[in-house]
Amino acid sequence: MKKQIDRFPPGKEAEDYYYRTLALVAEDYRPYHAFFSQVDTSYAGNSATPEESTGPAGKQNGAQVNVTILFDASGSMGAKIGGRTMMDTAKEAVNDFLSKLPEGVHVSLRAYGHKGTGSNADKAKSCKSSEEVYALSAYDKKKMKKALAKFSPAGWTPLAASIRDAGNDLKNETGNNVENIVYVVSDGVETCGGDPVQEAKKIA
């Protein structure tokens, strides 16, 4: 790394050096791209759209809908795209998504990776950071904006632990008339040794 960085041309902008450094350590996603490019996305027919729901306000087909947002606050969310951090863009997207939900839907927000730093010394602390910052309730734009403002890009990515915690948050929301949705907002993969797929299967 040091030898490669020493070869960087002088006089470039900070963002240029950031992406040059990122290229040295970034994971190769080409095998994943090849795999997903071959996935058959055909379907038999159109499914119902949200506005076609005939259930009461805040319900789909008569079910109470609960949406839990899992928000990645790891350090990589501080990277910039188009002059804005990925975290700022993601926060805006979350508010936009929630504002378009039917009236009566209950929402919650859980941040993860929002404590510590990306250093190895802080890994244990950061990998334990998973916190519900907006308890399951009706969507309130001002309260949600305040909850989103509580954290900024920080440490590692305990996605699996956050999914497990989301399951615990929703454990009492059961029954034939209840539909629970866990919505993950992230720019990367699990970095704390957990298995997000297995945790998702457990709560499913």
From TrEMBL:
Residues 66-204 form the VWFA domain. PROSITE patterns: VWFA. It comes from the Bacteria. Pfam families: VWA_2. This is VWA domain-containing protein. It comes from Tigheibacillus halophilus.
